[in-house]
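Q: For a teaching session next week I want to show students how multiple molecules come together into a single three-dimensional assembly. I've collected the sequence lines for a complex. Could you give me the predicted structure tokens for the whole thing so I can convert them for display?
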Amino acid sequence: DIVMTQSPDSLPVSLGERATINCKSSQSLLYSSNNKNYLAWYQQKPGQPPKLLIYWASTRESGVPDRFSGSGSGTDFTLTISSLQAEDVAVYYCQQYYTTPPITFGQGTRLEIK
Amino acid sequence: QLQLQESGPGLVKPSETLSLTCTVSGGSISSGSYYWGWIRQPPGKGLEWIGSIQYTGNTYYNLSLKSRVTISVDTSKNQFSLKMRSMTAADTTVYYCARLRILRYCSSTSCLGAFDLWGQGTMVTVSS
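A: Of course. Below is the structure for the complete assembly, covering every listed component.
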């Protein structure tokens, strides 16, 4: 199974500041034939189900604000929120779909207001 | 707008079988562009994928749960279901149904994609 490890577990950030969440996979998620990374990011607000933010490591889902961006390749990936808004407080998860089953998620990173 | 809604008992006794249903509304479950899946999340913890199914009935499961799990589909009712046998306290968690967008391909044993639409989730407690 591909193990997904996120860091940090908890991230306090001031409003308007940049937030950076990391995700590391136990094997490369880059598929050489199409040069795509098989990684998605989700946002889960309290009491709500997860919401898909980004797939292919850097493609924003429709309707997702452009302050959210994804980057990285191979085994190391980053979700960046360029200017933290109060409504961005949530737990963020990465998920690999390079090799399934199983589909695997990171343990989550809790983003909070400093 | 397509929506998913889980239904089923909130309380199950140890050793019994959990049965949950996900009803898809506002669209058809019979789309070749998607699979449908179950994911669970213990309170305050991370996400665990259980398994996924296509409208054709093709399924694939998390091997760690496969021996206890059956996922089925009823296209006439626009529903898919989860049965999990031999429930224990460790299975006390929130269960979500979700739509899996196929991003690369699906074979008979796996499907590559991300979950782009989720139900609100249903809390299941295993207790006598």
